[in-house]
Amino acid sequence: MSLRRLAVFRLLALLATFAGAMAPVAAAEVVRLGVTAGPHAQIAEVAKKVAARDGLEIRIVEFQDYIQPDAALDAGDLDANSFQHRPFLDSQVKARGYRITAVGDTVTFPMGFYSKRWKSLAELPRGAKVGIQNDPSNSGRALLLLQKYGVIRLKPGAGVSATTLDIVDNPKGLQIVQLEAAQLARSLDDLDASAINTNFAITAGLVPTRDAIAIEEARSPYANLLAVRTADKDKPWVAKLVKAFQSPEVRSFVSEKFAGSMVPAF
Predict the structure, then answer these.
(1) Do 225 and 106 contact (CB within 8 A), yes or no?
(2) What distance in Å separates the CA atoms of residue 115 and residue 124, rounded to the nearest whole number?
(3) Burial call 223-247: b when 16+ CB within 10 Å, e when fewer
(4) CB within 8 A of 215, min separation 6: which ones?
C-alpha cells in the first residue's frame, strides 16, 4: 500500500472516530413525579437512581398536602404521582372527575392515633377531642380504627366510606374534630388524640410502632400506589417507573430505613 493511500485511510479512520465522538447521546426520558414531603420523597429518591439505569430520569416535585398532586397530574403539570392509597384516589376520581389510573402498588403506611396526654384510646375521658382527617377516604379509615379499638360503633356496612354521620354509638361522647391530614400532627397540643397518617407522623418525629396509642395492622386495603393519567397507562415509561419503585433496592431501603413503620406492598 502506498504511503499516500495509507495516509488517506488513516484520515478517514480519524474522521469516523471524531464523528462518533460528536454523535448526540440519546437523552433520558423525563418523568415529572409528584410526591408528598417525607417518606414518599425519600422512597422516590431511591427509585430515581434505579430508573436512571433504564434511561428514565425522574424529576421529583414535592407537595405539602394531599390535594394538589392529583390536581397537578390531571392538569398535565406532572406525569405521575406517588403519595396516596386506592380509596383516596377513588374518592378523588369520583368527586373531581380526574382521568387518573393506578399502575402499581408501593408501600403501606399503617395509620395510628397519637396523644400527648393519654396512653391508650381506652383512657380517653368523656367529651375528649379527637382529631381525624377531613378527606372522605382517610376519615373513614380513622373512624374504622376507632371502632376497632371499641370507642365508637359505626352503622353496619359503613366500611371505608364511613362518615361521622355513621356513628351510632359514642359512649364517651367524643368530639370528633376534622382537619386537613397535614395539620393533625401539629394539632396534638390542642387535642386529646389524633389520627395521623404515617408519612406525616414520621415527618413530625413520631415513630408509629413506638408512639401510636392505636395502630392499624401492617397489611390493609390502604396500600399506596403510583398513579398516571389514564391516557398514559400503557406507555413504556410507565412500566419502567413501576419497575423502579418495585425494585429490590426500594424494598431494602423501606425495610432498613423505616423499621416496620411501613411495609412494601409489592
Answers:
(1) yes
(2) 10
(3) bbbbbbbeebeeeebbebbbebbbb
(4) 110, 111, 112, 113, 208, 209
Query: What is the CATH code of the structural domain delimited by 112-215?
Result: 3.40.190.10
Quote the DSSP letter at residue 24.
P
Ranges of CATH 3.40.190.10 domains, the chain: 29-110+221-264, 112-215
Between the alpha carbon of residue 103 and those of residues 31, 119, 135, 188, the distances in Å are: 15, 39, 23, 35
Is 3.30.420.40 the CATH classification of the domain at 29-110+221-264?
no
> Cell triple for residue 110?
399503617
The sign of the torsion formed by the CA atoms of 131, 134, 138, 140 equals positive
Tell me how far apart the alpha carbons of residues 185 and 175 are, in angstroms, rounded to a whole number: 17
Are 162 and 141 spatial neighbours (Cβ–Cβ below 8 Å)? no
Structural element, H or E, at residue 89: helix 86-96
The three grid cell numbers given for residue 80, joined into one nine-digit string: 405521575
pLDDT tens per residue across all 266 residues of the chain: 454 544 444 554 555 454 454 444 456 799 999 999 999 999 999 999 999 999 999 999 999 999 999 999 999 999 999 999 999 999 999 999 999 999 999 999 889 999 999 999 999 999 999 999 999 889 999 999 999 999 999 999 998 889 999 999 999 999 999 999 999 999 999 999 999 998 899 889 998 889 999 999 867 788 999 999 999 999 999 999 999 999 999 999 999 998 778 889 99
CA dist 221 and 2 (Å) reads 79
